[in-house]
Amino acid sequence: MFLSSILQSTLGDFLYAVGFFVEYSFVRLVRGLKSIWRWLLVSLGNLLVVALRPPVQALVDFGSALRQPGQLLRYLLPLVATGGLVFLVRAGLSLPFALRVEVNGQTVGYVASESVFDSARADVLARVNSARTLLAADSETLDWEIEPGYTLSVSTETMTETEIANEILRISGSEITEGTAVYVDGALRFVTTEGDHLRRYLRTIEEPWEDPTSTSTRVSFAHDLRLVDGVYLTDSITPYTDILQDLQAEDGALLQVQVNQTVTEVQEIAYDTETQEDSEMDFGKSETIQAGVPGSQAITHELTYVNGTLLDDQVVDVQVLQSPTPEIIRRGTRLQSGMIGKLGTGTFIWPVPGYRSISRWANLNRNSPGYHRGVDIAAPYGTPIYAADSGTVVAVVHMHYSWGNYVQIDHGNGYKTLYAHMSSFAVELGDTVTQGQVIGYVGNTGNSYGNHCHLEMTYNDVLFSARDVFPDMPTRNPDF
């Protein structure tokens, strides 16, 4: 009873201590959270006071100003000035600014930009120089200088560079006339009053090359010939016959017709072949598990002809119409029992996998009437023959009197193999082959009495029997 009383007292003390600790921890947590909450409220209140003080003060001041007209003006005048400035800026930006072109203080017209003015000025200069060139040929001079300028102005109506160039010439006071300028590759070459006749003449040259039924054919001159109507100096006019003579000079080089044609053709995209090796399928066997399907693509060419001769053919676009489907072939890698062997440092595979019928093994006893240098493996005509090991093809011989068609491989480690009586070859002299690569096909060439593969093996040029490498292969003739 005494022990029981002690246990109850101890248990009671423990439970009390646990309860006290839990209650005390909970009370401390609640007090901490309350302190954090009070701090957050005070901080938020202070932030609101700081943030709201300026607008509240402004409202108070504005209310006081309403009661005092003099103070109200202090607030209204800056607002009115700001609004006026915004209005002026927006009105100024919306004005149609242009460049006013002037010659000798007289307004010629308006252009949209400085680049238009520069082009017009260059055009005027080219017209003047053209006139100077013609007059120089007649030992005359043209005393004509003009320098247009421009200032920024406001105008809703602007002129093109050709129009402003015409007006500059009109206002210059020189003798001018309506005409047509002939530009060749961007340079002014001639000015004529027979512009309509020249246009018709050029059209007669282009028309034979045009194809009204084609929307992808563009006909032009190989040299950029451009005719521009306008106002030109009278002294720059070239006789029409002289212009034709110059254009037709050098076998009509300036009048060569260029035809640009866009042609689209559909081409086949060859499919790839993927080979998957299967260790569950016999070596030398394969099957197609997915047939290859060619794809197609549309190739667009830009063809350039000059007088009917093709000078350029560029591919400008390629669109894949149908992606090709790859061909997937499963190829067996499993060798049957006895078809792989190792001798010294050489590892070999049976050269005619799947065929184990051996008419006779090698008999290397020269004094024996059954002397035979290698093993004869019977197989149907055309059966693939594989390299027993990797190496270099050192002999590809056609119609040897005894071996017929044969291949010899040097494996680089002292070993060589020779495969005879082939019907055809799959390698050439000097080729590097890997173990299991097709090197030829079973045949009946040379001193042979049936389709078979004759295999000889040497080490340091000394014959040894393949039976030493493949001891588990059967034979129909146990005597050899």
End-to-end Cα distance, whole Å, is 105 Å
Structural class: alpha+beta
- The total strand number stands at 25
User: Number of folding domains?
Assistant: 3
Give the overall silhouette. Answer: flat
Share of helical residues: 25-40%
Continuous helix count: 7
Mean pLDDT: 82
**Contiguous uncertain segments of 5+ residues:** none
* Radius of gyration using CA atoms only: 51 Å
Notes on the protein architecture:
This protein has helices spanning 2-66, 69-93, 114-137, 161-171, 195-206, 240-247, 249-252; strands spanning 97-103, 106-111, 149-154, 176-184, 187-192, 217-221, 225-233, 257-269, 273-282, 286-290, 295-306, 309-322, 327-334, 340-343, 346-349, 358-360, 375-378, 384-386, 391-400, 404-410, 415-425, 432-433, 438-442, 452-459, 462-464. The protein has 480 residues and is an alpha+beta fold. It has 3 domains: 100-255, no CATH class; 262-330, Resuscitation-promoting factor rpfb fold; 335-468, Glucose Permease (Domain IIA), CATH 2.70.70.10. The strands form 6 sheets. Strands 16, 17, 18, 19, 20, 21, 22, 23, 24 and 25 form a 10-stranded antiparallel β-sheet that branches. A hairpin with a 2-residue loop joins strand 11 and strand 12. Helix 1 (2-66) packs across helix 2 (69-93) and helix 3 (114-137) packs across helix 4 (161-171). The mean pLDDT is 82.
